[in-house]
Amino acid sequence: TQLLEQSPQFLSIQEGENLTVYCNSSSVFSSLQWYRQEPGEGPVLLVTVVTGGEVKKLKRLTFQFGDARKDSSLHITAAQTGDTGLYLCARRYNNNDMRFGAGTRLTVKP
Amino acid sequence: NAGVMQNPRHLVRRRGQEARLRCSPMKGHSHVYWYRQLPEEGLKFMVYLQKENIIDESGMPKERFSAEFPKEGPSILRIQQVVRGDSAAYFCASSTGQGVSYEQYFGPGTRLTVT
CB of A44 within 8 Å of any CB in chain B? Predict the structure, then answer.
């Protein structure tokens, strides 16, 4: 059972375009993390959101946590080729365990 | 300022051999997690350990797989009698286990190839 559903699964866009990817669950999160993973490397933590309705910005990346804390989105403005990678959302499960979505694989073409 | 360290980065084993994967958490982190990632897929939780304790091993196959995190030294994920289906990238993460966010920081992974 996938606790977190990420969409779209694949996304291919041209450099300079904007995009949004989503992370949804049927249950409430206490917190949610977004990671980016590049080929051959481990995931790198981008942001943690905790409060319903919270918006965090990281340069061209905007992260939003839904008011009901069941969903989150990541918006990238003016995508660059360096944004290419697998974007993963993760949530706390049981004790300190984390569970990950299957990810959105983003390709930004020059 | 060392992050999570894993070794080896690449490991090749023949079917039936044992694979030992090591993970040293970030300084100050006492919680270690192991994940498996197949090509083109997300991360699958395997096991969560604190020093000398297995907290949650619900994601780890009951046969051939074991994990430990001794009082001294790195955490070790051991796969006995490897089969081709064990070929994957294995990632270790660590955290302080404190606070609301429980953020985990990942190592670079060990890519296991079973021939």
Answer: yes
